[in-house]
Specification:
The protein has 273 residues and is of the alpha/beta class. It contains 11 helices and 9 strands. A hairpin with a 2-residue loop joins strand 1 and strand 2. The radius of gyration is 19 Å and the shape is globular.
């Protein structure tokens, strides 16, 4: 089934999702501030597309996703839901052939993905943040799964992602109640990594992203892969995996450059090979 024929497919202005690259950092900006950056299926197509572009672009070392106008994302635009044929298969396809494209693109991304969250991150909007590798929140952040409040189940990975961050009991508390947590509480329970004043949130996010962009891209990708793979491995298998990764890394030009730069007390220049 083509994207053009997907139930609920909509039209969107090109600038409703803005993609840019600078200094090794790609930025995805959700840009529908009048609707707190609620996404459409056309935006989803573009979102997945730019993630694939970031993965393929050797100039991109880190990806940041954020929202315009003081909000991160309020989930799917309810107008999209109202346009979907009211059959189980159409509703399922809206997720599997639509919204879930972003999650699949994230799974294929070997580069660090950071969410910069100000204002609301609700429902699928929160899920989109949870699937990032790191989350930095502004003090204005208001995070909620919220699905239960409109009689739904989390549709974009929340039941998988949230327990892995905050533990099953806390995740169930938030999923079953639909309660909202602010940035400080989200940091306390491990939902986000850091909280900053809103005025400096993006500056702090890009400063950290810049640090990651300066690291060896080969080592960065292997560390990220090993962390996620090891969540489903026993220690013995993990150690075997790491031994293979280490053997590969130590044969690269970037490793030789890192060693030389360390000895010479200078910044390394990596070539990703």
């Amino acid at each position: 089934m083509s994207d053009e024929n997907l139930p609920g497919t909509d039209t969107a202005e090109p600038d409703e999702l803005i993609y840019s690259v600078s200094d090794g950092i790609a930025t995805i900006t959700l840009n529908r501030p009048h609707l707190k950056n609620a996404f459409t299926l056309t935006m989803i197509d573009r979102w997945a597309e730019v993630l694939r572009s970031a993965e393929a672009d050797p100039q991109v070392r880190v990806v940041v996703v954020t929202g315009a106008g003081g909000a991160f994302c309020s989930g799917i635009d309810l107008a999209v839901l109202s346009g979907i044929e009211p059959t189980p298969i159409a509703r399922r396809r809206m997720l599997t052939e639509g919204v879930h494209k972003v999650a699949r693109a994230v799974l294929d991304l070997s580069k660090p993905l950071i969410a910069a969250i100000s204002g609301v991150a609700v429902g699928a909007g929160l899920d989109m943040a949870l699937m990032c590798d790191l989350r930095f929140a502004g003090r204005s952040a208001r995070l909620s799964e919220g699905y239960i409040r409109i009689g739904l189940v989390p549709g974009d990975g929340g039941t998988y992602l949230l327990p892995r961050l905050v533990g099953p009991a806390k995740a169930l508390e938030l999923l079953l109640s639909g309660d909202t947590v602010d940035g400080a509480e989200a940091e306390r329970i491990g939902m986000v990594n850091r909280v900053h004043d809103d005025a400096v949130l993006l500056d702090e996010t890009y400063a950290f992203a810049g640090r990651l962009a300066a690291m060896s891209p080969i080592s960065t990708a292997m560390i990220k892969r090993a962390v996620y793979q090891s969540q489903n491995l026993d220690l013995r298998t993990n150690l075997d995996l790491i031994a293979s990764h280490m053997a590969v890394v130590q044969s690269t030009e970037d490793y030789a450059e890192a060693r030389a730069a360390f000895g010479e007390r200078r910044a390394p220049t990596f070539v990703n090979r």
